[in-house]
Every structure is written in structure tokens, then in C-alpha cells.
Amino acid sequence: MADALSGVTHRTVLASDGLKLAVEDAGPRHSGGRAPLLCLAGLTRTKRDFHDLRDHFAFHPDRPRRVVALDTRGRGESDHAADVSDYTVQREADDAAQVACALGVHNAVIVGTSRGGILAMILALTRPGMMAGSVLNDIGPRIAGAGLARLKRQLPASTLPSSWEEAGARVKASLQAQFPAFSDEDWRQHARLTFADKGGQPALAYDPKLLEPLSAVPDGLPFLDLSGPFKALVTRPMLMLHGEHSDLLDEAILADAVAMGAQAHTFAGQGHAPRLRGDALSTIDDFLAKQGF
Hints:
Layout: E1 2-3, E2 8-14, E3 20-26, E4 37-40, H1 51-58, E5 67-70, H2 89-103, E6 108-113, H3 115-126, E7 131-137, E8 142-144, H4 145-153, H5 164-175, H6 184-194, E9 196-198, E10 201-203, H7 212-215, E11 223-225, H8 227-233, E12 238-243, H9 251-259, E13 263-267, H10 279-290
Parallel strand pairs: 4-5, 4-6, 6-7, 7-12, 12-13
Antiparallel strand pairs: 1-2, 2-3, 3-5, 8-11, 9-10
């Protein structure tokens, strides 16, 4: 379904097991050789995280390009899986490949935030022909144990916030150390991106079963190794966006990624994961131009 006012087409693509995946498709299908962007969100995040990026690139006055973003299974407007065993990075990477195939998205630059970046790594192993390069938002060849421990501590509360004001306060309380420069308006916006709106009230934007594997992560784990699939992905041009205060992508991991061939840019005052707006969009723009994408 096309939104005539926004220029965004809302699509549904069937996954290989029949689940319905919600997709937003914007910008020209053929854009003078410019690579399309395929956007994959984080563990509990949705395609709404890419709206600023979508508007910047799909509707650029001089260099518009196609931008496709999906709600991975169990997130946003996509169907939930019946069993937690269907929430694996392999299954979710296959979902992304299904979307790309169904919509004719070829030689894409994959923009992956956190878990979305892991999906890009898996696709580099299983579907190497579908991508030209990647932009990884705060994810690298390892995931630092400190960040995993924080995520485990911040499993969702048993009760939802009763208002959007409370939602903003909760998000601020859990992430202020990561984003010390955020204003009150930033926190209000972040709450709107974090929670779904159900009848004017905050609601979960994801299936709680997604977090079950996280609860099984051993305490004291130093890091989670992703170096194998990362090496497959970094054979193509890669830009890494890094939050200064990130506890999932620390300086040592970032240095290792750069040594493997990645380009990197650190954003001051931000943590996991940098918001895709403002300077982040300019940085991505420069990367795409320099690579001829």
C-alpha cells in the first residue's frame, strides 16, 4: 500500500515459513546506479529507527536512492513466531534475503544496527551476491561482555509504563549513562521509537520471547565472538558507526575491526547505538560517495 503523501510504500512479504513481514519501501526503484539501502534493526527495535535515514536518502533532492526497511519477525508490525526457536540470526537473515528477493533489491548496502549488523554478517556468508557493502551501527567482530550483562539486567519490567511521560522517564533512566547529551525532547522521541502506540498508550513493540536467549547468557562472559562472519562481511567496503559510550562495541573491538579493513567513525556523547540522524547521515553519505555507491 502506497502512502501518497509520504512517498513510502508499505508492503508485506511472506517469510519462508509463512510469517508476514512488514516492510517500508521508499525512493526510486532505479536511481542512476546508486545502491539501494537495506535496513535491519536491533534486537527489540523496529523499522521506525530508520525513518530519518529513509527521508534523507530516499527523498534527497539531488541523489535519491531506494531505501527498504523491514520489521524483522517478532518486531513492530511483523508476525510473531510461535516458538522461540524461530528467533535465530540464521532465520532472521533468511527473512531479510526473502524480502530482498521479493522486492528486487540487488547489490544493496546493508545498514544494520546491532543485531541487524549480525544479520548482515550472516548474509555475507549465505547470500554474498546480494550486497555491495555495509554500514554497521555499533556492532563489530566481538560483542563486549559488559554490554551483554547490561542488556540482561535491563530485561523488560513486568509492567508497562502507564503514560508516554513515564515511558520517556524509564528510557532515560536506563540509558542516560550511554547518552549523556540527550535533551528531554530526545528522550521523548526515543521513547516513541522504543514502544509501540496502542490506543494512545505505550506498548511493547516486540515479542517478549525474543529476550529468552539473552537470559541464558552466562554471567561474566568476556565477549561473544563474531569474528568469523565479520571477516566474510569486511571483504566488501564497510563503515562502522561507534558510540563513544558504547558498552557493546568498545575501543579495543573497534581497533580490531579497523585492522581488518573497516572504516570507522565515533560519535561523541552517544552510546549503544548511535541515532541515525544528523551527523550520522552525513557520515554515511560521505562513505557511499567515496565508494561509488
